[in-house]
Design goal:
The protein is 19% helix and 41% strand. The two termini are 28 Å apart.
């Protein structure tokens, strides 16, 4: 089994190796590089994530592989490389989920069978342009409640459809990611 490292102790410039299965056919491939950034805020499928950035070559198919430090300790789980809006893969940019977060998720799955995540019990929409504002009949840009889950904390707190969320715990909310990023700190 892999020896688990401490991803919070990583420093920019540290040597790392990524182990994966590029293209789904080249199992056991190892590439090397350095930690290019820690706590890099990256949007993945509409969610902000705080990831390890590396210049180790990471190709499609590497997701789920390990990122190891020079001592051979597992410090991240590779979750891919970046792509541009045109679909081109960015060169020398790979990302991994810090192992401290990965182990927290694994522990919850083993102990309870699911991952506990904070939830307000609402669905929101970003209204950030005049056309969308006109469509929804609002005059102020922001984050608006479009659904409230029955029995949720949001319903109990009295949130209503059409409410605009301006802040949570004194943290300004200008778009959906502000809200989801804040909630991610509460697990």
């Amino acid at each position: 089994p892999a020896t688990i490292g401490d991803s919070s102790a990583l420093a920019v410039g540290e040597t790392v190796v990524a182990v994966g299965n590029p293209m789904g056919t080249l199992s056991g491939t190892v590439t090397d590089g350095i930690v290019s950034a820690v706590n890099r805020s990256v949007q993945v499928e509409g969610n902000d994530m705080s990831l390890i950035q590396t210049n180790a070559a990471i190709s499609p198919g590497n997701s789920g592989g390990g990122l190891f430090n020079a001592a051979g300790e597992l410090i991240g789980i590779v979750n891919g490389s970046t792509t541009t809006s045109s679909g081109a893969v960015s060169q020398n940019l790979g990302f991994a989920i810090p192992i401290n977060e990965g182990m927290e998720v694994a522990t919850q799955l083993i102990e309870t069978g699911h991952v506990a995540r904070p939830a307000l019990g609402i669905q929101v929409i970003n209204i950030l342009d005049a056309q969308t504002a006109m469509q929804y009949g609002v005059s102020t840009y922001g984050v608006y409640v479009v659904r409230i889950n029955p029995g949720s904390g949001a319903e109990a707190a009295g949130l209503q459809l059409g409410d605009r969320i301006v802040a949570v715990d004194n943290n300004s909310v200008n778009e959906n990611n502000d809200l989801t990023s804040y909630l991610a700190t509460k697990h």
